[in-house]
Every structure is written in C-alpha cells, then in structure tokens.
Amino acid sequence: MPHEQQPQTPDVLDAEAVRTWSSLALAALGRAREDIDAINVYPVADADTGTNLYLTAESADRGLAEAFPEVTDGTGATSLSEAVRAWAHGALLGARGNSGTILAQLLRGVADVLGEQQADRAEHEERETGGLLARALTRAAEEAYAAVAHPVEGTMLTVAGAAARAGEAAGAAAGTAVEVARAAYDGARAALAETPGQLAALGRAGVVDAGGCGLVVVFGALWQALSGQEPAAEPVRGRAVPVPQPQDPCAQEEDGPAYEVIYLLEASEAAVGELRERLDGLGDSLVVVGGDGLWNVHVHVDDPGAAVEAGVVAGRPYRIRITHFGDERRRARGERAQRAVVAVVPGEGLAGLCGEAGATTVLARPGELPAVAELLDAVRRAHAREVVLLPGGAESRAAAAAAAEQARAEGVRVAVIPTRSAVQGLAALAVHDPEGSFDEDVVAMTAAAGATRYGELAVAERQSFTSAGICQAGDVLGLIDGDVAVIGAGLPETAEAVLDRMLGSGGELVTLVLGPEVPDAVAERLEAYVQHGHLAVDTVTYRGGRYSAPLLIGVE
After folding, report:
1. Measured on CA atoms in the order 145, 150, 156, 162, is the torsion positive or negative?
2. What is the distance between the terminal CA atoms of the chain, rounded to a whole angstrom?
3. In this predicted structure, what is the pLDDT of residue 78?
4. CA nearest neighbour of 224 among 53, 25, 14
5. What angle do CA 281, 286, 289 make, to 5 degrees?
6. Which residues face 324 on adjacent strands?
7. Bridge-partner residues for 148, per DSSP?
8. Does residue 284 contact residue 520 with C-beta atoms inside 8 Å?
9. Are strands 337-345 and 509-514 parallel, antiparallel or unpaired?
10. What is the rounded distance in angstroms from the CA atom of residue 458 to the CA atom of residue 462?
11. In contact, 423 and 553? CB cutoff 8 Å
12. Rounded-to-integer distance, Cα 41 and Cα 37, Å
C-alpha cells in the first residue's frame, strides 16, 4: 500500500517529494491501468501494459516504504539519496513486462543523479533544484534508451526523451523544479499525441502508445508532487481496440516469439554484455536494466529454456517468470483458458522444461519455501477457470492449500495434487489432458504422480544419524521416498545402489534430473547401468539447472 501522504511544501526536491511522487504515481496508474491495458497493441497486443506499469510502481513504492519508513524534514541530502535509490531498487526487483522494465530503468536514471547530491548542496534553492531535476530526467531517458537492444520510436522511449528535452530547456532558462516538472509533463503529453504517426501498429489501431500513456501519468504525478496541484488534463487517450483475431483458428495468433521470459540476475557488467548478445540472437523485445551487480532481464523468445540457460551462464538468475503469449492474448480478449497447470519446481532447467509444456512455474530455491502470495500470483497469471497445482514437495503443500483456498474464493476451481518431488510433478504433467473433464484429469495426474517412486541424492553437511546408519560430512546420501536408504562415497556409485533398490519392485521408465555440477558422463553411466540390468526399462534425462539437487530419480 502507498504510504500516507504528508503535507508537501511545493517546489522542494527532497526525500518527501520522492515519497509523494511515488504515492501519487501509484494511485494514478491504479486509476488508469484498465484504460492503458485497453490500448495496448505494441509490441504484443496482450492488454497488460497498464497492469505491468502499476505492479512495477507498486513494487517501487513498497521498496521505498520498507527502506525509508520514517518521514524526515527532508533537509538532509543523505535522506534524498536513500529515498531515490530505494525507490529505484524496488522497481528493479518488481519490474513486470517490457514497459515496467523500462520504467525501472527510468527511475534508476533519476536515482543516479539525485542520489549523487552532496550534503552541502543548497537543495532548497529554486534554481539549483530545477537544474538538478532536469539532469535527472535526461539521465533517465539516456539510460532507458541504452537498456533496450533495439529502440523503437513512437514508444515510451520517445515520450521519455521528449519529456527530458523539455525539462532541460526549462532548467537552462533557470526554471524552478516545479517549472521543470511542468515542462516535462507537457512535453510528454505532446510526444504521446504524436506516437500514432511514428509507429505503424499504433496508427492502424488508432491509439497512442500504451507505455507512453503510462509514463505521462508518472510525469503528471511528479508535477503534482512538486506543485501541490492536480493535473488539469488527463493523458492523451486513444480508443480501446480489440486484440486482432486470427482468421484461421489453427493458425498462430500473432507473429513473433511465443514466450515472455523475465528474471532477476546477479552478474558482472561484462557478463551482462555477453548475455545481451546471446539473448538478442534468441528473440526480440530485449531489455536489460540495472547495474551494480543486479539486473532485471526481459526478452521475448520461442525457447524459454535457452533464455534461462543464458542467464545461468552469465550469473545467478532467480525470480524467473515464463509467460506464454497465447494465454496472455486470451486474457486480452477477456477469455480465460479452461484449464492450466501451476508447478513448483526446484531448478531453473526444470522451470524452463515445465514452461515449454505449458505450465506456469514457481521456482523453489534451496532453503526457501514458496509463499502463499507467490503461489496465488502464479494461479492468477495462469488465467484459467480450472487450475491443477503441483506443490512439488511436502513442505510446500500447506502454502499450496492456502493459495488454492484464496483462488477458489475468486471463482477459480483449483485442485492440489500432493506431489512430493519434482519427478512426480513431471509424471503428472506428462499425462495432463486439458481437453478432458477436470475430475478425470486430476485423477489421472494424481495416479501418475502416486505411481512414481522418487529418489534424491544429496551431500551430507555434517555427521548425523540416518535411517541407513551414521553418515559423515561429505558422504553422499541416497534417499528413496524421502528416507535415507544408502550412504556412499561417490555420486555415481550411490546412484546405482539407489536405482537397484528402486527398480527391485519393477518399473518401466526411469527419469534422471541432473544438478548443475553433475557432468554428462554420470548420466551416460547411469543410463548404461539401467539398460544393462533392466532391458525393458527406458531412461530419460533432463538438466535440473541451478538450484536443483545433485540428482533426482523417478521410477514409473
């Protein structure tokens, strides 16, 4: 929730002005989000630009409130620096979609300038604050353009650039902060009105750019925060247009990649430079924002697994979101899919694999359980009348049950299948039939999961008593159905012993999910071992990716 607004002295560029700007922008985007969604036709007509901007602003406002909870008198330069940096950091963490990612970088640009303010600066001097704000808006536009792999005019980048130029002109004329803000707001509105003539997709639809419209709202909030006056004019609006319908129901709905992939990434600047090149070859709408070791990556691709793997090569990706545009376009037309699957998975490779199979995924990292809110958000993103939820482990079932209960209160039919391992989730997903009845689908998926015995190999961190005896730190533990069954010195030998026990009671298919540090040679050895001892048993191998256990085994 936005913080409670305090009386703001007009034309003072301080920490409280930033807090007020954030609160007003969030409220204004909340009022305008449906109108902005309705005119969203570029780069993908998925009717979510207003929502993405609102959710990004909400994350930014939350970051500001958490890092700067108390209102000071605003006279300390340090408090201004802390406020703008916390605001930009919050936006980076929660940036959604193309538009939200660009907004996060715009706020970072503002923070780069306002955050450099020195303690001895006379920040209440009108001329100084006007020039400071103008420089901040210019830096914001420059960084936003630099973050987009292939900038396109007629978008929110154009609006940001026009606002910055208008603000710079006012600042050069010794304008005050409120005069610079008003000039930027007017410049943004004028640029927005021109966007249909700059971008063919907008001209054909008869609308202004949706992201630019949201940015005008943000600039209006800035002027209101500094002037104390509510903007007299609404942002320039276009008419709402329906998302284009394909003439052939079997044809692809839209040109372009099928998936949107977003993740946070801890990586060096050099590694991110190489990542940009790699992702640029995989898809389009590439936006990479951030700095100082933390980045938000956004790209549209046909191979989401490859996009995630590129992040693994560059550094440590997390909070991975994979969205299928077919689902988004149905939502844009006001349609819900009949049924969807939401799966909690312990590995980025598994997240990509399940995403390609059509599931909405929630990444579970070691030692961290998915929150109820995170699971509920995934159910909402699935945008279906019926949802099958795969919690992936016994420890996640309580959160899954709570999320399902809340989703049912919102009119979604949800069934939680009590999967206890990712391999049981894969087995359930393999028999998922979205065309059959909900009850029959749930029964079949539950049966497939229940018929899959699961094993896991882990490394003991310390000496302890187990059901298989005393283990020492560094021993390899082989677990079957959650209990330690084998204690060994090496991973391949222990895995073979686990396979022997699991296949002793029969089986037709072995699934191996390798952790990020396990070489391919181990998989080849285990596949040969199964084939040699069990000729009728097939083996499939997947890469679990970062956060996956060293080895997961499923026997069906």
Report:
1. positive
2. 48
3. 43
4. 25
5. 130
6. 259
7. 287
8. no
9. unpaired
10. 12
11. yes
12. 9
pLDDT of residue 388: 93
**CA triple 229-216-297, angle to 5 deg:** 130
Nearest to 362 by CA among 322, 419, 404: 322
Q: For residue 509, give the H/E element and its range.
A: strand 509-514
Q: What secondary structure letter does DSSP report for 148?
A: B
Q: What is each CA distance from 476 to 15, 292, 369, 471, 498, in whole angstroms?
A: 54, 37, 24, 9, 11
Does residue 48 contact residue 328 with C-beta atoms inside 8 Å?
yes
DSSP 387-420: EEEE--SGGGHHHHHHHHHHHHHTT-EEEE----
Residue position matching structure tokens 């040109």:
255
Question: How far apart are alpha carbons 433 and 431 in whole angstroms?
Answer: 6
CA distance 374 to 364: 11
Query: Which residues sit opposite 294 in a β-bridge?
Result: 266, 291
CB-based contacts of 528: which residues, under 8 Å, 6+ apart?
none
CA 147 from chain centre, in angstroms, equals 17
- 32, 217 contact by CB (below 8 A): yes
Phi, psi for 464 (deg, rounded to 5): -160, 165
pLDDT at 477: 93
Among 420, 320, 302, 410, which residue's Cα sits nearest to residue 360? 320
Is the separation of the CB atoms in 329 and 347 below 8 Å? Answer: no
Cα→Cα distances 483→18, 74, 105, 499, Å: 54, 58, 48, 14
- What residue spans of 73-209 are helical by DSSP H? 77-94, 97-114, 126-147, 156-172, 177-198, 200-205
**DSSP per-residue string spanning 471-536:** E-TTPEEEEETTEEEEEESSHHHHHHHHHHHHHTT--SEEEEEE-TTS-HHHHHHHHHHHHHH-TT
Q: Which residue has the tokens 């995403």?
A: 355
DSSP 282: T
Contact assessment for residue 160 and residue 151, using Cβ atoms and an 8 Å cutoff: no
The pTM score is 0.60
Residue where the block lists tokens 């210019």? 138
Token couple for 240? 């709402």
Query: Do residues 542 and 511 make contact, with C-beta atoms less than 8 angstroms apart?
Result: yes
Closest by Cα among 143, 6, 144, 135 to 69: 6
The string of DSSP letters for 339-375 reads EEEEEEESSHHHHHHHHHTT-EEEEPPTT-PPPHHHH
**Rounded distance between C-alpha atoms, residue 123 and residue 14, angstroms:** 8
Burial (0-12, 13-18, 19+ Cβ within 10 Å), 71: middle
Residue by residue, what is the 3-state secondary structure of 96-112? CHHHHHHHHHHHHHHHH
- Mean pLDDT by runs of 10 across the 556 residues of the chain is 45 82 92 87 80 90 77 48 89 89 93 68 52 92 92 93 94 86 94 91 89 94 90 56 36 62 90 92 90 91 85 85 64 65 85 81 79 87 88 86 91 90 89 88 88 90 89 92 90 92 88 88 90 86 83 90
Structure tokens at 11: 């034309």
Q: What is the largest CA-CA distance in the chain?
A: 84
Q: How far apart are CA 449 and CA 398, in angstroms?
A: 18
Residue 349 CB-density burial (10 A; 0-12 exposed, 13-18 middle, 19+ buried): buried
